[in-house]
Amino acid sequence: MNTEQINSLFKNLNSLYADNKFKNAYIVMFGANKPADRSIQFLREHSIETDAIIDNNPLAWGQRKFGVMVASPESVLKEYKENAVILIASKYYDQMCAQLVKMGYKKGKHIFQTIKFTDYDISEDTAKIYELQALTGLELYQSLKRKYGEDVQILISPCSGLGDVYLIGKYLNVYLKKYNIQNYVLVVVGNGSKKVIDLYGLSDRTLLMSQEQIDSLAKCSSLLGNAVNINVLLHCYRPTDILEGFELIQHRINWGDLYKYALFGLDKSDGDGEEPIYPDLTKEVQVKLLGLGAKKGKSVLLAPYATSLTSISDFVWEEVAQRLTDAGYRVFTNCFGKTEYPIKGTQPINFTVSESKSILEYMGAFIGLRSGICDIVSGINCKKVIIYPDDFSKHFYSLNGMRLCDDAVEIVNGAEKETIEECLRCFDI
Amino acid sequence: MNNELLSELKRKLDNMIENHMFDGKDIVVFGMNRPGDETIAYLRRHNIKVNAIVDNNPSNRGGNIHGIKVFLPQEYLGEYKENVVVLIASRYYLEMCHQLEEYGYKQDIHIFQTLHMTATKHYCIDQDEFEESVDRLRNDVEILDRVSDGASIIFLCPVKANGDIYLLSSYLRQYIRKANVGSWKVAVVGKVCQNIAQLFGIENVISITQNECESLERVAALMGSGSGVMVVQPYSRQQDILNNMEGYKGLNFSDFYKVIYGLEETSQSDRIQFPDMTIEAETLLHKENLPEKKTVILAPHANSIPQFTDIFWENLADELAKREYVVCTNVSGAEQPIKGTKPIFFTFSIMKSFLEKAGNFISIRSGMCELASSIDCKKVVLYPNKAARHGNLMDLYGLKNMGLSEDTLELFMGKEDVIIETIVRYLEGREL
Predict the structure, then answer these.
(1) Range of the domain at A39
(2) In this complex, which of A179, A226, A261 lies closest to B91 when CB atoms are compared?
(3) DSSP H or E segment with residue A315
(4) What are B284-316's pLDDT values in tens digits?
(5) B278 exposed, middle or buried (CB, 10 Å; 0-12, 13-18, 19+)?
(6) Do the chains contact at A134 and B241, CB–CB below 8 Å?
(7) Which of B169, B195, B196 minimizes the C-alpha distance to B184?
(8) A38 to chain B nearest CA, in Å?
(9) ipTM for the assembly
(10) Using the beta-carbon criterion (under 8 Å), do A227 and B129 form an inter-chain contact?
(11) Residue range A57-107, pLDDT digits in tens
């Protein structure tokens, strides 16, 4: 999912919400995919629970995601439900829709498309919105030039993912040196991003902006091209989204390569970048962890939530937590915001990026679905088990492959039992 | 390199020519890059000969581009020569300049920056210019509306380049299947590109003007996939981004098309379907008095890579003539045949039948090579020995690397007599 698709998803969900479509509805996500994850979390933020996920793939049936069961369309919808609201975000919308229509459900009444994958809109209105955005961006750019100087280069990290800024921090100084850039400003979105950048000692020249502001700078760069000195540092965001297709050139290019080589224009000889420096918070963290009942070297942090990759079955996490507990470990779930629940049988814990090193070194072990947290964990000295939803993501986002570390145990999610056993094997259980 | 940069380069060189700054000088181009090629070609057109090329990449050393030798900077310039003019057009200008200053050369006396690229460029844009961009965009949207004429997606080939439209066409159907595209059309600039797409069986291909093409590109740059325009060319959008990946982990030019279409690495391409024009080919051969299988077609012209010297081609033609080959030069438009060879022109439709009859094809790597790649004749493709970011030109454009041909003899240009000897052996079926 790229930023535009995510935006369109939220826009559509918001408008359905405003129209009261979810009230007293039986809510179904069609497709156990990433948009379904995001939709479930979106609704949860509005205190609405999803009733079911349906999928045509028998391998997905019987799983639970964020507490919601995955089942076949027939088992959930064969018995006609007048109050069903079925959300679809898939390239196969037409086929899926036809399948539901046969079962008696109607477009616009029961069936709603939340992302149109072929959403062509070149009306004058759309062009006008883009122009306005670009103009806002230009004004912003000009004010930055007034403040930092005529030759300032604006580097933007347009998404709040922690992994993105972790990689930007790693290579930024190398890039500035190589291209002899003295005057720059890095613009990021989200407090977490800013904190990651702080670890690289780059906070002086880093600005925090809203998503709208960042989007406007990117639009300005798209419209005016080389006439402005704005560089976008993300492979799936216009105007650099041409790089998105590299996700499919398997076994060759990974996400780190795109940052290092494509976006920053570095070469092999430029090395692997810089390491973040964490403040020593051992004492503060110890107090916090003792209060939560953590055991030094015998605690495990679970991180089941990710913004870009598709979630895996709840059962895997619950079983892993249970068996670790049985073996004498204390198990925690990294929870952020009100949509991230702790895994059953674990305690929730919430910490800042700068605390992460001290916390994990105290606990001793981390098991996470591949997310931006994993990039941060890569440089920390603890047992690291990283779960990837599929082979693609394992190749493209591999911590070891990106040379962020060489000691991560990387598992591709398969049958529930196998994933569980692979995780536990790392703990000799 | 876009037209804007190209005209800036030419303006700078014109200015230097007018001021007699090259008169009696030892002229050196620093950097084996595209602006370097353009500089050499442009000066040559003004009868000014560049004496040497210097480049920091050791793999370029000892090469020979446009008949000019390539040295490491310290080799040619390490010993201070008062009489030198060094031309630089590179984003590493400052570093390169410092390097030369160490040898005692001075900016604006010996060292001249012919293009201001990124780091030193001034970015000033005012309200008026913005308004202009916006007016232009509105016009662009109207043009898109007219060109698309109801089609929900336009696949745009924004350059007049045979190899590029070949690759666009060869992966198009895979993308259409995968992305479940409804109504679509291909837009190209010029009849030649249109013809190539048609040879892939693509019926709905239209030829648009250069201006229309630029409009479509601008809309796509701003509005992305929402515009319904898919620009299918690796180097047309955000500058440098894909260039930065050239040759990295073996990435080649075909891979970039897969990246643009979002296809998997293992995707198979469609092959071009030449019509059977055996009879017409025989007629052409007969008319020109060319012997079957003993005719060699030379294709010495290329748009995007440095050319070889005429002397090389003349010597090659001589050597082939001695072995009773009849040698022709493929020419179109104002192109001149190599001395001692027959000019010949053929359309792409007849190309397969004609080359199969003629028997032999020797070309500098150009867009013609994609077209020739699947044709059953003896094929030799020559590459300038030149680095391309993380690899060299053959890594990037090699027909074998790109999965286009297994049976083509692909050679780096080296010592000319050795190359000629190798080619002759290959054509005669002797061991290489």
Answers:
(1) 3-113
(2) A179
(3) helix A314-326
(4) 999 999 999 999 999 998 877 888 888 999 999
(5) middle
(6) no
(7) B169
(8) 22
(9) 0.82
(10) yes
(11) 888 899 898 889 999 999 999 999 999 999 999 888 888 999 999 999 999
